[in-house]
Amino acid sequence: MGIREYARNSKAFQRLLHHYNNREEAARLFRQKGGKVVGQLGADVPDELIMAAGMFPVRVYADRDSKLTEADKYLEFSFDPVIRAQFEKIVDGTYSDIVDYLAISNSTDVIIRTYLYLKEIRRQEPEKPVPPLTFIDWLFTRRMLYQVRNEFTIDLFRQTLEEWSGRKISDSDIEAAAKICNEDRTALREISELRKARKPRISGSEALVIIGSSMFMDKAEHAELTRQVAREAKDWPEIDAKRIFLTGSAQEYTDLYEMIEKYGAVVVGEDHDWGDRYYERDYNTSYSPIRAIVDRYMLRSFSSKKAFVSQRVQALDEAVNASKADAVVFYVNMYEESASWDYPSQKKSLENRGIATKAFVKMAYPITRNEWLEDNLKKFIDSLKE
Known about the structure:
Helix content is about 50%, strand content about 10%. The chain is α/β, with parallel strands linked by helices.
């Protein structure tokens, strides 16, 4: 299944797929026209503030095929492989003509360590092409006292963006940018409804392209193209397949989804940062701008990197129920242990409700290095059909 001919024949989907496959194109063009680009490392860097500053946000991602020369020089091998590949692109100069600045959020413990390494490289080896960077030190506890501290943190980020852009960021600037981001998230929820319908009209691979392309292109254009795909997809054929929910490591590419869907299943949902979690929760226009930013990014569903096991069990149960999944696949990269800590309790809760599970842990990166994976996925999916 994967990306079907109906999607490929859609001009709107083709445009989204183009940006998904050519992830630097829009940022380079924006920069060539005199704009400034902010790279985002971590899932909790507010798009709204970067856009309000008149700058272009673009997500840092891993190159699956690059040699990790710089990463091997600076990082321990215990860093998870995706972060190592992202670090490589920052230090080896790949982003030199793409981003002007780098904003890093403490979305995971390993990203915090990565920030400290990058900061020290800039101090000790200024000739290295690491861009100027800033760190967003969120507090993930949801009590009001901590949220007040987060408002202070985000106001500091606002001031940094004002220095980088050379302009003041007004509240109306933030509200205008937030309106665009909310419209994009609304459009993505239209895709989600078609994907999670009793008979899906959109496959998981197609959904991942639609969601992921938003991280690399103009948000207003993305929202319009996504709405157009949603209108067209209402007439696409229904997908009759076993429904899989995917959890664990973030998937920056469609490889795993296509492998699952090749054998008669469809990925109807996920809780990683390149999937459903990306468009969760809107900017609340009834709040002051800084408070609304904090509310939007800190009150989304719990990430495995910043939550108690009980919170993750509840969050996964709710997400699986919403997707009406028949089974859950846990897929965790090597050295990303935090995602596997929740597994025993999550497995027990799911199987008590008759939902099948399959775990793939300590997986090599990229996915093609796991030669046995495809056969095991096929056997699992065949067992669901039986």
